[in-house]
Design goal:
The structure is a single chain. With 320 residues, the chain is an alpha/beta fold. Helices cover 38% and strands 10% of the residues. Strand 4, helix 4 and strand 5 form a beta-alpha-beta unit. The two termini are 33 Å apart.
């Protein structure tokens, strides 16, 4: 198989992101958002809540709110499972936890290969190889991306995954991947919001046929322990929202959608859940898009080059 299996537009433009969704709430909230109209659910083994997300999926299917075919479910291969021997078991564990027979999209979560941790030892394994060690740190495993990708392609061949892609990948990484991929990556998922607009990376990915998905699309620093930083508070965003008669968050998501990207916001507030899905009833003018472009700060919240030394005693830059 060659080419891009995912036609542009087949993945719902607005999805619901399950990162930091507590286990005690996950099933109920997934059921709620799908009942409200969401059909795109973004999960990952590292989020530690896939069993609960799967329970929410089961409820809506059992109740006839939607069918499995109506849903677009994404998950991600964690860093400790990059070796080809571990890709299939990792995917099967995710499918088992979600209660699904296939994924619509499976992404390599980071371009970071860590030493394998058996499921029975710790799942999800997170970043430390041995969190009980005196000198605990991340431990890398030298696995070529090509080897991991070949195993990802076999998941498509086996019918376990419909599309494969990458997350937190840069332009050079995409060039390398595209040079050898038999099944081309369908999606690039990256941090993307008005404070981190990354136009060259977005344009490069889209020009090569990838759908770009924005995680943390609101640019809300509280998710990363930066309570005082949020694009929602930007004067330009608020003025446009007032002019349009919508909420600032809707303006931000509409900006992402008009760039040709999918967005996966996360909220547990009923009003904001509804508002986040309602971004098709208005458009931003070219002038408004240009105004939002001026607030780009190249501010990256989710950067392993920053949080890995600080939290995991290990240097691990991926954007330098």
């Amino acid at each position: 198989m060659t080419g891009f299996p995912l036609p542009v537009g087949s993945m719902p433009t607005v999805g619901y992101g399950c990162w930091k969704l507590g286990k005690d709430k996950a099933a109920d909230i997934v059921e709620k958002v799908i009942t409200m109209g969401y059909r795109h659910i973004d999960s990952a083994s590292d989020y530690g809540n896939e069993k609960e997300v799967g329970l929410g999926l089961k409820r809506v299917i059992d109740k006839g709110i939607c069918s499995r075919a109506d849903l677009f479910v994404t998950s991600k291969l964690w860093n400790t499972y990059h070796h080809p021997d571990n890709v299939l078991p990792a995917c099967k564990r995710t499918l088992s936890d979600l209660g699904l027979e296939y994924l619509d999209l499976y992404l390599i979560h980071f371009p970071i290969s860590l030493k394998f941790v058996p499921f029975e030892t710790r799942y999800p394994p997170e970043w430390f190889h041995d969190p009980d060690a005196k000198d605990k740190k991340m431990e890398f495993e030298q696995v070529p991306v090509q080897d991991t990708w070949r195993a990802m392609e076999k998941l498509v061949d086996a019918g376990l995954v419909k599309n494969i892609g990458v997350s937190n990948w840069n332009c050079q990484g995409l060039r390398d991947l595209l040079s050898f991929a038999r099944i081309k990556p369908s999606v690039l998922q990256i941090e993307l919001h008005p404070y981190l607009q990354q136009p060259r990376l977005v344009n490069f990915a889209q020009s090569n046929g990838l759908v770009v998905t924005a995680f943390s699309p609101m640019g809300h620093g509280a998710s990363y322990f930066n309570q005082n930083c949020s694009t929602l508070n930007e004067k330009i965003i608020q003025e446009i929202a007032t002019e349009k008669g919508v909420q600032p968050g809707q303006v931000i998501l509409r900006w992402g959608v008009q760039r040709g990207c999918a967005v996966i916001p996360k909220s547990e507030n009923d009003d904001r859940i509804r508002q986040n899905l309602d971004v098709t009833g208005f458009e931003l003018t070219d002038e408004e898009m240009k105004k939002i472009a001026t607030i780009d700060r190249n501010m990256r919240f989710n950067d392993p080059g920053v949080f890995c030394p600080a939290a995991f005693n290990t240097e691990c830059p991926i954007w330098d």
